[in-house]
Amino acid sequence: MQKKNVNSHCEIVAILNMKKKETEKEQETPRLVVEQTEAPEKADARARHAEASDVGEKPTLKEIIQEQAKEDETPHSNTFTLRKILGGDILSTSTIRRQVWVFMLITLFVIIYISNRYSCQQDLIEIDRLQKELLHAKYKALSSSSQLTEKCRESHVLNQLQNNKDSLLKIANQPPYIINIPEE
Fold it and tell me: If you ran DSSP here, which 8-state letter would residue 174 be given?
């Protein structure tokens, strides 16, 4: 007999029963057949499916997906091998359900990391802007200081006074001399 693709436990039981009947016809010796019992949830889904097929209604998409999701979940051993990890066996629904809080915690840490990095980048941009502003202020202060020094020189002040003819001040031709007054 050819190898058939089997989608559910119900079909496996049906195939086993057919094989059992064929072999009983060939041999009249009694045989012991072990059938796998289903979980109550699977039995309920199968009963609903059987009722729907009796009435002529097809099962809903939700029921089909729930049935397949429950059938595909096989119990895993507690040992993790590289083959299981690389094959994706550890990403079963039950594992994800058990570790949902770990995933949420990791997501929270990632969000905190991203927000902290964004905040630091904003602070660095602000520091850079303030450093440029400080450098501009230093250059302006240096420029103002040099202009003030130029305008306060004695020769420049005298030239301004002579041009405006406001004063009769002149640059002295003789050096100043000290007058000594005796103390009495």
Answer: S
Note the helical H segments in 27-153: 40-55, 61-72, 82-87, 93-98, 100-152
CA distance 47 to 44: 5
Domain span at residue 155 reads 108-164
Domain assignment present for residue 134? The answer is yes
Contacts of 4 (CB under 8 A, 6+ apart): 15
* Six-digit token string for 74: 């096989």
Provide the greatest CA pair distance for the chain: 158
Q: Look up residue 9 and give its amino acid.
A: H
139 in a domain, yes or no?
yes
Percent of the residues in the chain that have a pLDDT greater than 90, as a whole number: 27
Say how many domains are in the chain: 1
Q: Which two tokens stand for residue 4?
A: 């058939």
Burial bucket for residue 67 (CB in 10 Å: 0-12, 13-18, 19+): buried
pTM to 2 decimal places: 0.40
The residue with tokens 């199968």 is 46
Segment 64-113, tens digit of pLDDT: 777 776 655 555 566 778 887 787 777 776 777 888 899 999 999 999 99
User: Tokens 């949420």 map to which residue?
Assistant: 104
DSSP single-letter state for residue 165: T
Among 47, 99, 39, residue whose Cα is nearest residue 69: 39
Whether residue 62 is contained in a domain is answered as no
